[in-house]
């Protein structure tokens, strides 16, 4: 008799547990769909630059930064226009074993990120060169809080380039 009562009580308990983990709110919509990702509206280029340990070069223009808040890891975005030489130095400072290389996008962008800054997604920009690195993997202690950082460099004219940086 006690076993039967325990089973009868267990069924509603399990159902309640499953419902609470389903990610739906009272109205029946998925809570995660409405909350994530979010944009930290207070984040700016200076904050993102500090997190990435990347100095925006003196004389750079159009500096923009944003932080996309996600449940597991935030994504930091930084973009600015500088000299081609500065852009290449920033890429070298990431300490990748590979140089900047042309990257033909054969995949869909990971949602709108740089679009939040009013820019095209860098992987869709014709002729953009790319390099990415895992800072802890290359012993970059300055960036030990990051799992990944990448840069795209888009040549604009003879000596100007737009730099796109993304880190998480």
Number of strands: 7
Structure annotation, total helices: 4
Structural class: alpha+beta
Strand order of the largest sheet: 1-2-3-7-6-5-4
The poorly predicted ranges are 1-32
- Average predicted local confidence, pLDDT: 82
For the terminal residues, how far apart are their CA atoms? 56 Å
Q: How much of the polypeptide forms β-strand, as a percent range? A: 25-35%
Describe the structure.
The chain is an alpha+beta fold and 168 residues long. The chain has helices at residues 2-20, 31-35, 45-52, 84-93, and strands spanning 38-39, 61-69, 75-83, 101-102, 129-133, 149-155, 160-167. Strands 1-2-3-7-6-5-4 form a seven-stranded antiparallel beta sheet.
Layout of helices and strands:
Blueprint lengths: L1 H19 L10 H5 L2 E2 L5 H8 L8 E9 L5 E9 H10 L7 E2 L26 E5 L15 E7 L4 E8 L1
Antiparallel strand pairs: 1-2, 2-3, 3-7, 4-5, 5-6, 6-7
């Amino acid at each position: 008799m006690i076993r039967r009562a325990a089973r009868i009580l267990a069924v509603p308990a399990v159902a309640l547990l499953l419902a609470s983990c389903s990610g739906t709110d009272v109205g029946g919509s998925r809570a995660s769909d409405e909350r994530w990702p979010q944009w930290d509206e207070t984040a700016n280029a200076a904050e993102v630059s500090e997190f990435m340990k990347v100095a925006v070069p003196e004389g750079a223009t159009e500096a923009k930064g944003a932080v996309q808040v996600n449940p597991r890891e935030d994504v930091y975005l930084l973009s600015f226009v500088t000299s081609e030489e500065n852009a290449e130095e920033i890429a070298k400072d990431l300490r990748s074993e590979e140089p900047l290389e042309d990257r033909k996008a054969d995949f869909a962008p990971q949602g709108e990120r740089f679009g939040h800054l009013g820019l095209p997604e860098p992987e869709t920009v014709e002729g953009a060169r790319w390099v990415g690195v895992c800072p802890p993997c290359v012993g970059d202690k300055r960036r030990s809080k990051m799992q990944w950082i990448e840069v795209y460099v888009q040549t604009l004219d003879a000596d100007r380039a737009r730099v796109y940086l993304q880190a998480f």
